[in-house]
Amino acid sequence: MARASERATRPSPSADREVLRLVAELYYARELRQPEIAEMTGFSVSKVSRILAQAREVGIVRISIDPPTDEQPALARELADRFGIEVWLTPGHEADPSAAARLCGVAAAERVADWLPASGSLGIAGGYTLDALASALPRRGLVDLTVVPVVGGWDSRNRYLDVNELARRIADRLGAQVHYLHAPGMLDDEETKEALLRDSAVAATTRHWASLDAALVGVSGGPTILPGYGTVMDRLDESGRGRLRDLGVVGDVSGHLIRGDGTIIEDEWSRRTIAISIDELRRIPQVIAVAAGSNKQHSLLGALRAGFVSRLVTDRQTAEGILRLASGGGAGATTAHRTA
């Protein structure tokens, strides 16, 4: 039993709550900074921070944020109708490619989470935009869903291409299971790649590719574009970049090179890359592409014309650029609409 002196000096729960309320009022209503509150109260700055966190936990502070609107602009409908897909436009008008990509990924997270199947298998590619999306995904309890990389699982030089780590993070946010792909993205030669694909540990993951229920992919820019962040094109030297440019490559989707007209280019790049096949990619019921930035307008147009994207998340400026290119003929006028 506590001594009488202890009972006399210990603050009551109601007094504690009033301290929480007072500090919260100073911070939120009177707009004082935490160091100012610390000086006024005699608390340390770290204690002020803890009090503010506790005030939110016990409900003294309730933060209200308007929900996002489900209404999409006519631009989204125009792009959707043009390619026979579903389009969701994220906010922002960032001119910087890296800022546009990250903002698109973060803003896409909740919408993408709502689209994902509750069970089955989800294929994941890597990239800068999907890295941002993974960090912002809402928590889910999709215990019957398994996340599977659809391209080689690790890259020691570029963390955005470490698809195993990305798959782990996405599975953690979704409450899902995960299978890792114990293989690099690109091998030294085609023979090594084929030998590795026959390995039982690798095949345990790649066998899921033929029966995926959905896939979440990014789209890279062209081989000579330097957007200010690491991309899959950084695996090439200058001569390799020039070779792909001369072949008409405008980007990469899940290890496959595409032209602006939607055709897939066979090159030593793809022959050395461990990735889901184009036929397997096209058979997936739902392929969600998330990408934005001026550096990706041509590549996104190519991916849409290729016909394996069913849902696209991008921003307004990128969508406008895609439609301008498509209306002007761009790098070819062929359009393959997505079919179930």
Question: Can you walk me through this structure?
Answer:
With 340 residues, this protein is of the alpha/beta class. The protein has 2 domains: 13-57, Arc Repressor Mutant, subunit A; 74-327, Rossmann fold (3-Layer(aba) Sandwich), CATH 3.40.50.1360. 44% of the residues lie in helices and 13% in strands. It has helices at residues 4-9, 13-29, 34-41, 45-57, 74-83, 97-115, 128-136, 163-174, 190-197, 200-206, 238-246, 268-271, 278-283, 297-306, 316-327; strands at 86-90, 119-124, 144-149, 177-178, 214-217, 249-253, 256-259, 264-265, 287-290, 311-315. A hairpin with a 2-residue loop joins strand 6 and strand 7.
Any descriptors?
single chain, 340 residues, alpha/beta, Arc Repressor Mutant, subunit A, Rossmann fold, 2 domains, 7-stranded parallel beta sheet, 3-stranded antiparallel beta sheet, 15 helices, disordered N terminus, disordered C terminus
- Helix and strand pattern: HHHHHEHEHEHEHHEHEEEHHEHEH
Strand content: 5-15%
Count of spatially separate domains: 2
- Level-1 CATH class name of the largest domain: Alpha Beta
CATH architecture of the largest domain: 3-Layer(aba) Sandwich
Q: Averaged pLDDT, please?
A: 88
Coarse structural class = alpha/beta
The biggest beta sheet is recorded as: 7 strands, parallel
Write down the CATH topology of the largest domain.
Rossmann fold
Radius of gyration: 25 Å
Query: Which strand order do you get reading across the main beta sheet?
Result: 1-10-9-5-2-3-4
Net shape = globular
Oligomer: single chain
Residues in helices, as a percent range = 40-55%
Number of strands: 10
Point out poorly predicted stretches. 1-11, 330-340
Tally of helical runs:
15
State the end-to-end distance.
71 Å
